[in-house]
Amino acid sequence: MKIATLPEVTSAQGTVLYLDGISVSFDGFKALNNLSLTIDAGELRCVIGPNGAGKTTMMDVITGKTRPDAGRAVFGEAADLTRLSEAQIAHAGIGRKFQKPTIFEQLTVFENLELAMKADKRVRATLIAKLNAADKEKIAATLTLIGLQEAADRIAGLLSHGQKQWLEIGMLLMQEPKLLLLDEPVAGMSDQETERTAELFLSLAGTHSLVVVEHDMAFIESIARKVTVLHEGSVIAEGPMEDVKNDARVIEVYLGR
Amino acid sequence: MNAGLALSSPLRLAIGGFAIVAFMLFPILNLMLPAGHPLHLSAFWVTLFGKIMCYAIVALALDLVWGYAGILSLGHGLFFALGGYGMGMYLMRQIGRDGQYQADLPDFMVFLDWKALPWQWWGSEHFLWALLLVVLIPGILAFVFGYFAFRSRVKGVYFSIITQALTFAAMLLFFRNATGFGGNNGFTDFKRILGYSITAPETRMALFAITAFVLLSTFLLSRWLVSSKFGRVLAAIRDAEPRAMFCGYNTVHYKVAIFTLSAVLCGIAGALYVPQVGIINPSEMSPANSIEIAIWVAVGGRGTLLGAILGAGLVNGAKSFFTVAFPEYWLFALGAIFIAVTLFLPRGVLGLVQRR
After folding, report:
1. Hey, is the C-beta of A158 within 8 angstroms of any chain B C-beta?
2. B residues 8-47 near A, CB within 8 Å?
3. Residue range B100-128, pLDDT digits in tens
4. Angle (nearest 5°) at CA B146 between B142 and B150
5. Looking at this predicted complex, what is its ipTM?
6. pTM for this entry
7. B227, closest residue in chain A (CA to CA)
8. Inter-chain touch A87–B239, beta carbons under 8 Å
9. Residue B89: inside a domain
10. What count of Cα atoms within 13 Å lies in the side-chain half-sphere of residue A138?
């Protein structure tokens, strides 16, 4: 996979996502408990924590799949995500990669990217939509970025697991999102594939904000700048990887075991 | 990719062949040759093929929602029947005073001792109003039902079950005399359509030709839809609806749109069916009828338009044969066909010859 060289953005450009006191409970079980979190523009944030800590539920709340019982989720210029539908949130500029690669298995790789591309996505528009040269170029660029240029006309269901993961990431990029949520992006990838994914994420940070949830600590360490540790639905530690690794509480609930 | 409207040459050939048979060969063999001629095509065959073409339209309609969008509706028989009833009301009014009771009201109303037409029959003497009902009643019902079902995220087998319940409930409603549509006898004994005798060979042939034209148009419309980006979004919803939503598609709108269009096509098919077979009654709404439609599509090959048409033809051809030769075994045969297709031909008969 070729990595586009993107300018490193060092200066903070403000907050892109702000979770404020989010609580979600399922049948009395508190999946998220007064969770607050801030993601800066251009930041690459890793979120770790034991199973059931609420990582996936947090993503569900941000993308509108789950409605919180309390709290606010503010994205960009004061859009309250807790009031928008999944599709509206996608249009607002949030892309999400699922834990299990979720692509359109019976369409080709090219068609997968075509459907994900930022465009008018209402019924009437898709009836008459045609790809212009600029669209095709955009798709070709993404195919190159995710290393699937040879597989453009392959049925997506026939790709390897790692390729599916990349295709899904490519689909997110086609949406031109401001914020990418990546749930276990390197699960099932070979070491080499994982390494290339790390490079890709590092190159995206700066122009995009990324939130990565992972269990693979080696991967986290290779990309982490700032890490948030969740436990029982709340943040128990946040900071540079080195500090978090030496935090007594974190060792007790997660790393130590 | 992006084949758009370009038709492959075998397909062009098939469409041309179909047009020649339907619009030239059938009329010549049926109307021009005298009844005694060995090549004469009797009214029986014209009606049978006309009927099967109506079923093929329904199969195409179901394939759009099931094969392409992944929504298995087991209530499409209802939309077909509603279209049939819409046309049937007009045909009942065309009987005029030529019924058993020689009254202004349709026979069943005289029999029930009704003095005036109930409100549902307003406008039913106008052909254009009937056409409007044929399209609007199934369309509006599907739109409202689909909107609430899809918005509430009813999917998969749950959706199939509630569509079965819907058609069953409608059947019970239409069984009642008080509903105003002839109760369990429905409508029959039609005499005329647009003033022409409904049993005249020319009228039958005209209905046949219109049906063939509508089938062809439905096929081309469906082909255009499934090869557009809209069609690919439907496939995307079928393969991974959450991903489609997170790509920014409001999947409820897409599902409602295709479900409504599908219901309208079924209504039109029903309206063509009733004047040709001469009867419509609530048994058309029985849950089993709707399941049979799904079997046609599965047998032919769901997710392929030709497969849907082929399936409707094969299963109904077999049905016509069995119900004459071994009437008591038809349901066993149907069950066996369905099991065989599920086990050995998951992509239907067309899957045998098609690769993708």
Report:
1. no
2. none
3. 999 999 999 999 999 999 999 999 999 99
4. 170
5. 0.88
6. 0.91
7. A127
8. no
9. yes
10. 20
